[in-house]
Amino acid sequence: MLSIFDEESVPVGDDALQWVSVRRRLGVAAFGTNAYRAARTGDVVIEEHVESPGQEELYVVLRGRAEFTVGEDAFEAAPGAAVFVSQPGVRRQAVALEDETVVLAVGGWPDRAYHSLPWEPIYLAQQFMRRGEWGPAAETLEREAGEHRETAIVQYRLACCHARLGQHDLALDELRRAIAINPGMRERAAAEEHLASLRDLPGWPAPPAGGAGQA
What we know:
Blueprint: E1 10-12, E2 17-20, H1 22-26, E3 32-38, E4 44-49, E5 56-63, E6 66-70, E7 73-77, E8 82-85, E9 92-96, E10 101-108, H2 119-130, H3 134-144, H4 152-164, H5 168-181, H6 185-190
Antiparallel strand pairs: 1-2, 2-3, 3-10, 4-9, 5-8, 5-10, 6-7, 6-9
Helix pairs in contact: 2-3, 3-4, 4-5
């Protein structure tokens, strides 16, 4: 058991939005569920996004009030209100209308079993990355990634951490592995400030023959 209102949270984005990792803390495997807290009126309590993995999502306001924008529709939601977004491609966001607003999110796929996604360990490491604490960020990614350790985005974030720490061989190895899985990472890496120290090194990934690195 945990108290969503009192459980330790992780800052997301500019630190105003706080993420409570409900699924990970309780060991939920059947569906995704997390809570988000906004300390002040006007703070974002659900980030603007589409569900690119294709999940349906249900949002339940537990405390405070929030203004939801779902596609072209905007409406207020009070405690107890449930907002269901069945179409993953519809853009959605919620902003707190009261201090200490809390929203619970539940998600899953209608046609297949749930599996966790790599954004969770990235969220856990993100707070350290924003503060320039690259060692703790890398340690968090390694410790928390679990089944997602070999995904392209986790390897890419590890490459950024190692590059900032001056661990160039490790960074280049992670980056090459990320690009092998997702060639689109090559173009992203070319503009990534965290990887700037790697670009003149012999191991920097070259663009494919006959192309400029566009996936």
